[in-house]
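Next comes a concrete protein, fold included:
___
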Amino acid sequence: MIKNVIKRLFPKLDTVKEEKILKIFGPAVLQPNLWHINKKSVSRGFAIGAFCAFIPIPGVQMILAAFLSITFAGNLPLSVVLTWISNPFTYAPIIYFAIKVGKIFVGTSLNYEIKNNEISMFSDFMHMWEPLVIGSLVLAAIASLLSYLLVRLYWIYYVKKIWSNRKNN
């Protein structure tokens, strides 16, 4: 199962205790649920990671995912890794799609022109920030809910498959 692969890739709790960067979160980072692979923590980790991936603040996404994982007892490594959904290759399409979705809720009409002067870029951003934020939050909520439900459904399917294999043997 994927669980065994993930267990091999995850750091052991003893090595986590020695990491200096994680000491900013204090003893909260050593909660067992943050590092174990079970149905609740993995599904929460996926939901948190997917939510933070669609928040349009690069660089802060992983810190936000770590904080939310500690707060809601989600799997910390999974939530941090899943923020990498938004990377330099996918960031532009995600932002474009977030603006398109946000325009549905805000009701503004934006016309995009590519210009070379910075004043135009700044004024364009001033018109796009509201649809971008609203669209990003909508996409983040949808991605979070879908990932949570899909992980739960996959977990149920996998457990049923294991039990049926045990009955047959």
In short: The chain is about 70% helix and 0% strand. The chain has a mean pLDDT of 81.
